[in-house]
Amino acid sequence: DIQMTQSPSSLSASVGDRVTITCQASQDIVNYLNWYQQKPGKAPKLLIYDASNLQAGVPSRFSGSGSGTDFTFTISSLQPEDFATYYCQQYDTLLSFGGGTKVEF
Amino acid sequence: EVQLVESGGALVQPGGSLRLSCAASGFTFSSHWMHWVRQAPGKGLVWVSRSNYDGSSTSYADSVKGRFTISRDNAKNTLYLEMNSLRVEDTAVYYCGRVSQELELLSPIDYWGQGTLVTVSS
Fold it and tell me: Cβ A92–B37 below 8 Å, yes or no?
């Protein structure tokens, strides 16, 4: 099984801050890596697919990079609606998720 | 508009059984791989199972293998998860998700249902 190690598990930030989350895979997953946003009581929402591609309709302040085993997710200027939990997910072999990063005020 | 609507969640005793449904609309259901993902209260997302577009290929997480069965009825545009020998640790919100590209396995989940809560408790 592929393990996904996401860090940090939580962070405190303010509106306008640049936020960076990292995700490390236990083996090479090429670029089969997605980033999701989840708000309380809601389903996950796809933000970034294939490591660096912005899903349609998602604001350009969200971005992703990386390949192989190391990946990064960035919010360039945090907005009030961005306070949520973010998950990385690999789909190279079955599916597995990182532990999540809660972005708090 | 793509819609996925889960149902069937309930309170069940340990050792019991339950069948979840995921009704799909707004797309060609028979052309898409589908997944079940669960989330225990206050915890992260965990993959449970997947089915290819015609149900002939399925996979399971080790934690549910032998107890859960994924299936689909493409005539009814519905995905199912049959859950047997339920344990307290199966308590979670269960989401179904659609793989975005038709006939493709290696494609992200782009649509999710709203989830259905399964509580296993005596």
Answer: no
Residue with tokens 């020998």: B85
Q: Which residue of B has its CA nearest to A102?
A: B44
Q: Is the pLDDT of residue B104 over 90?
A: no
Contact A94 B114 (CB under 8 A): no
Strand pairing report for A70-75 and A96-97? unpaired
In angstroms, rounded to a whole number, what is the distance separating the alpha carbons of residues A31 and A69?
9
pLDDT in tens, A60-100: 999 999 999 999 999 999 999 999 999 999 999 999 999 99
CA angle B6, B20, A48 (to 5 degrees): 50
Of A46, A96, A99, the CB nearest to B47: A96
Residues of B in contact with A91 (CB under 8 A): 106-108
Q: For B42, which residue in chain A has the nearest alpha carbon?
A: A40
Over residues B7-18, the pLDDT tens digits come to: 999 999 999 999
